[in-house]
Specification:
Distance between the termini: 74 Å
Shape: globular
Number of helices: 4
Largest sheet: 5 strands, antiparallel
Number of strands: 28
Strand order of the largest sheet: 1-28-27-26-25
Helix content: under 10%
């Protein structure tokens, strides 16, 4: 009986071991996905009327006041594209001031709000009692890493000083940075004495203050330190400032030749080097090179004028020129740059046709920003004055602002926005 049971067990083992012979073993084969061809539809927008920059609408005593009308997109508190401008009136020797914010709504219309009316007016009146300036500006608005809105306050004081044994009239340009609490109507000032600049008021018989010192760019980090960049001796220089005292903590010196645009990371500065056609990531404050990217971009792309946008929440970096918009995979540890608009017609970034039949979608017969007819220019191609700034709300929604020449010079210019929205498939 035991032998019969043993024999049955052995037969079962042989049968089971033979099962499955000759059958092909299944494999988990993954077919690589086709790369997604993203296309964007284009829509022409205009800036609010305040930024139309037409001479008959705005009276400018100094050229920098005109330039300050629009100096770039700034995200609002919800991360939506917005533009900011300061507004001042003088009534019975009292300043009334505010910060105007225009936020782009879902229907592509602008929502206008006025901020810091009490605090900014109070600040200006108190400051004027102390300094007695001849004029001032408040512009170059930026969103700091701490979420606050910042702007550069510049004022001019006239006086006399001895030059070569003779008393001459001088103008001194002073700077402060203002931190503005949009929700609670508060303004905080940090003077920047290290950037004060003086020169003779009348130069070669011309009665104008030809001061040209302005910051190329600046950035406020989350720890409160501030990086200011300015053009000096044919190149860009930088200084890191204590956000509370205005004291210079680090002088970066003249670290790159020529005028540049910049992007800012969590503790890095990103630049494009014209010398070797590469994007370089430099750690702050040592300026040691942390990474290089974009080396695979072709000559027809890399040599154009570049603009930058960094998402302050995710540290995603985007770059843009007239060839399109590109996403940088990881600016700290990758060389890869991906084209977002490669399958989209982006010729509108360099030129457009006005009033011509069959013109590209989005071209308008009216002058952007001023609402005046351009019928006299029907069929003509208007060269854009170049990209001014761009804003990436998401990879599905990109805004690019252009300055456009309506005449022979800068006295007749306007702004237009090209909005690229991802097409649904």
């Amino acid at each position: 009986m035991k032998r019969r049971l043993l024999s049955i067990c052995l037969m079962c083992i042989l049968v089971l071991s033979g099962c499955g012979k000759g059958e092909t073993e299944e494999q988990d084969i993954q077919i690589p996905a086709e790369p997604e061809n993203t296309k964007y539809k284009m829509e022409e927008l205009i800036l609010p009327d305040f930024f139309s920059a037409q001479e008959e609408e705005h009276e400018f005593e100094y050229e920098e006041e005109k330039d300050a009308l629009f100096d770039g997109f700034v995200s609002d508190l919800q991360g939506k594209p917005a533009v900011y401008a300061s507004s001042f009136t003088l009534e019975e020797e009292e300043y009334l001031a505010d910060i105007a914010r225009w936020t782009l709504k879902e229907n592509k219309d602008w929502k206008e709000d006025h901020l810091c009316q009490n605090s900014l007016s109070e600040f200006l009146n108190l400051k004027y009692e102390q300094e007695h300036w001849t004029r001032f500006t408040l512009d170059q608005f930026r969103r700091g890493d701490d979420g606050s809105l910042y702007g550069i306050f510049c004022y001019y004081i006239e006086g006399k000083s001895e030059v070569d044994g003779e008393m001459v009239e001088m103008v001194t340009q002073h700077f402060s940075i203002l931190q503005m609490d949009e929700e609670n109507d508060q303004v905080f000032e940090t003077p920047l004495p290290d950037f004060s600049y003086s020169m003779q008021k009348y130069v070669f018989g011309v009665g104008a203050t030809s001061l040209e010192r302005k910051f190329t760019d600046y950035h406020v980090f989350e720890d409160g330190k501030m990086l200011f960049l300015y053009n000096e001796s044919g190149g860009e220089s930088g200084k890191i400032i204590d956000g509370e005292t205005g004291e210079v903590l680090n002088d970066l010196g003249n670290f790159i030749s020529g005028r540049r645009r910049f992007a800012f990371g969590e503790s890095e500065i990103i630049i494009f080097s014209n010398e070797d056609k590469k994007f370089r990531v430099l750690g702050i404050p040592e300026l040691e090179e942390d990474n290089v990217f974009g080396t695979q971009l072709g000559e027809d792309v890399i040599g154009k004028d570049w603009f930058f946008y960094t998402n302050p929440d995710t540290w995603e970096l985007y770059i843009c020129n007239e060839t399109g918009v590109y996403s940088v995979l990881s600016y700290l540890d990758s060389d890869e740059v991906r084209s977002l608009t490669g399958d989209t017609d982006i010729t509108s970034l360099s030129e457009r046709s006005d009033g011509e039949e069959g013109s590209k979608e989005g071209a308008s017969a009216e002058g952007p920003g001023d609402g005046r007819s351009q019928a006299g220019n029907a069929g003509s191609v208007k060269k854009a004055g170049g990209i001014v700034d761009f804003f990436v709300e998401s990879e599905d929604s990109i805004y690019i602002c252009l300055r456009e020449m309506n005449g022979d010079g800068f006295d007749d210019e306007s702004y237009r926005i090209v909005h690229y929205e991802k097409e649904e498939k």
